[in-house]
Amino acid sequence: QVELVESGGGSVQAGGSLRLSCAASGRTINSPAMGWFRQAPGKEQEFVSVITWSGSRTYYSDSVKGRFSISRDSRDKAKKAVILQMNNLGPDDTAVYYCAADYGAGSTWASTIAADYDYWGQGIQVTVSS
Q1: Are 102 and 117 in contact (CB under 8 A)?
Q2: What is the pLDDT along the chain (130 residues), one digit of tens a residue?
């Protein structure tokens, strides 16, 4: 079993920044692609960003491209921790953000579809006020 633990959410004013972290533990043989999804009140869950297990490729939704950046936590040599740096936040970014791990992804590609992910974190609230 894998546990994903998210941290770093909170409240910020529009134009501000937040940094989300996610660490996976419990399954030590393989390294997964790790991504973020979010769900705003009354809306469907949507893909935000993902990084391949090798760190060689990243993907972003159009709504966050140019503002968000995903990276592997360089302090974690096992490649099981990621950071989502969120800049220039706006009220539309308000949502619960979920970290997810996909152990079936390749080294050079990753899925943007939630159903492909094997494990999920509990979610962390991000609130952006105008």
Answers
A1: yes
A2: 889 999 999 999 999 999 999 998 886 567 889 999 999 999 999 999 999 988 889 999 999 999 999 999 877 767 688 999 999 999 999 999 999 999 888 778 899 999 999 999 999 999 999 9
DSSP string for residues in 65-88:
TTTEEEEE-TT-TTS-EEEEEE-S
**Residue pair 57/51 in contact by the 8 Å Cβ criterion:** yes
Residues 6+ apart with CB under 8 A from 73: 21, 23, 81, 82, 83
Dihedral over alpha carbons 34, 23, 11, 128 (to 10 degrees): 0
Beta-carbon count within 10 A of 79 CB: 18
Return left, alpha or beta for 28; rule: phi > 0 is left, psi -120 to 50 is alpha, else beta: alpha
d(CA 108, CA 95): 29
